[in-house]
Amino acid sequence: MRNYIIKRLLLVIPTLFVFTLMVFIVIRFIPGSVVDLIAAQLARVGVPPDRAAVAHNLGLDVPIYVQYGRWLGNLIMHGDLGNSLWRNTPVLEEILNRWPVTLELGLLGLIISQIIALPIGIFSALRQDTWGDYIGRSFAIMCIAVPGFWLATLVIVFPSIWWGYMAPIIYTPFTEDPIANLQMFIIPAVVLGMAMAGGTMRMTRTMMLEVLRQDYIRTAWAKGLRERAVIIRHALKNALIPVVTIIGGQVPIMIGGAVIIEQIFCLPGLGRLTIDAVMFRDYPLIIGIMLFFGVGLLFINLVVDLTYSFLDPRVHYK
Amino acid sequence: MPDSSSGEVAERKRHSFLVDAVIRLLKEKPLGTIGLVITLLLLFTGIFADFLAPYGMNEVDAGPSLLGPSPGFWLGTDNMGRDLLSRIIFGARISVIVGLSASAAATFLSVVIGILSGYISGKFDLLVQRFIDGWMCLPPLIILILIISVTGAGMWPIIIIMGIGGGIGSTRLIRSAVIAVRENVYVQAAVAIGCPTTRILTRHILPNIMAPIIILFSIQVPSMIMGEASLSFLGFGIPAPAPSWGGMLSGSARSYMFLAPWMAIWPGLALSTVVYGVNMFGDAVRDILDPRLRGGIGRYGIRAKKEVPRKK
Known about the structure:
The complex is a heterodimer of chains A (about 325) and B (about 300). Chain A is mainly α. Chain A contains twelve helices and no strands.
């Protein structure tokens, strides 16, 4: 097991670094350099802009391979991702300030999606090709088909027209006031959860159908077990293995969803930070966020893979 | 007198594969049929948008601004007095073009990479797979936003970038199909008689992985339509005056959404219906093409007896 983990990390980490290098180069081609933006900003407040000085202060006056070398060196030697070009705060600090919001949104969304998906998926499989099944499957595809940004717009517009209700837009951390915090997060999380529920629901249904035809399920019935025991203990546990994979695969899509949802509901998370960083050409911040996401997803995928051996004793990693 | 079994076989061959598939779709997949109808409707609207739309897509002051749904303007007008129905009809054209071309590009790319990686295997496969592992570690929407901010927004950049992104992400499906096909005896036979590799790949492997290719394409179309809409919504997609459904939901629709909620309703409804329909159709196609998913005991028209008793 330990060897397996080490092997995977050794294989993926170099790839990640190749990607950071690519991102590092690619973002320099975004039209409108940050030096011009800052010089324009300085001119607006009446300071005579000196492009060379600005570039020198930001460390952008040296060739790009020197910049990458400095960045990589700082990262490896000090675990330092550099400073934001605009605010001059450490990138890591910016990310660590914002990521609890995205994490909370993602976790709540994940929980809600499972609450919606698993019961409907199981029900659909148990009543295959009945109207209940058709309605369940239609609902699953509807979850996939309805774009989160539209659903979000609707849940902002209609409650306010009908009942004059507005979702709170000032962010309160969970540690300060859990109830106010949840009030703010619950609607965005439901919107995000709906989008994820569709895929899980369909996967649960397919796998339950497959498992229910297995011999060991017939044995379980033959032993005279109750329906609940057969379905939950014998069928569901086996059906869930691929479902866990799909949850792992959904995380990147969830991050994309979070970018949109944070934008609509004014949540100060990583998604909004990303958009701002791209808009303002804050190169170190962009790289930092990409690396953060990359390492995070790498970790999640590893955890998902290791869950298999817990769910399915036949799986061993070497 | 010919025996009855051969007569039955002759009768079954009456239809071509395609006709047979359509008949099965209509007979056994009610949801798939609905999907087919929606898909055809989208294609029809997209192709004949010029004839169907009562006003031009950017015809400002076609009517009073922010008019609710009314005769003459069935879906109402937006803040610039443009007819929403016409804009949604023209938006269908954008969705058709983006959906089909981006999916075609993505499928082509996954087939090329998947076939090479699956057939050549060895070091090359290992390298390609690690590259894809790394790619999968980055959230797709954010990558798209980054690349589009470099290339600039517009319909063709989006098609190409989404095509490449989607193509890299889904090579695995093709690769695993190729690995399964590669082990067949007829491939070994082709190698033995000295077939060049290109011929093996195009004449022996490719025809035998058509089913996953079609499935992949059908999965891609709705996700590309949705992807374009999301990008346009965030302002990284097709720029403003063009009537992209995603773009119509952002900007002015969001500033006027309390005054004129119809501006925020119709484009989303159109988008949801289309993605729903294309998904349903794609699912039905997949069920028909993949014998393992046919349900029952694997043959059409014969349904398995309920194996799971409901109650004791």
